[in-house]
What does this fold into?
Amino acid sequence: FYGFSFSAIAENWWKRYDRAGWADFSIPVIGVSRDGPYAQNAFVRYLDSPFELFSDVDGTAAASYDLLTERDGMGSTRTARRAVFVLDTKRRVAGRWLADDWISPVPREAIEDVVAAL
It folds into this structure.
């Protein structure tokens, strides 16, 4: 989960995941944000990214993981907190990470270890 497509933060992290080889995982890596499908498509093409992005326009997916939060200075806009969930083949959460802020790095090695253990 991430805040907004085309934000500097999202661009930075998706490029890092690509450089880290996350496209080679044995499971798909899917990004989720409240942007619409046209914005998601434009963003993934802009990045020339191997990942798929999912539009959670109304926030239902983010709400189901209890991730929706208010954004300072953005009126009543609620977005998902940055988070990573690793799901097993039965769609159970095998590992997770929730950001405390909008810029802290994802613990790549810990996530990669969870994926390798699946």
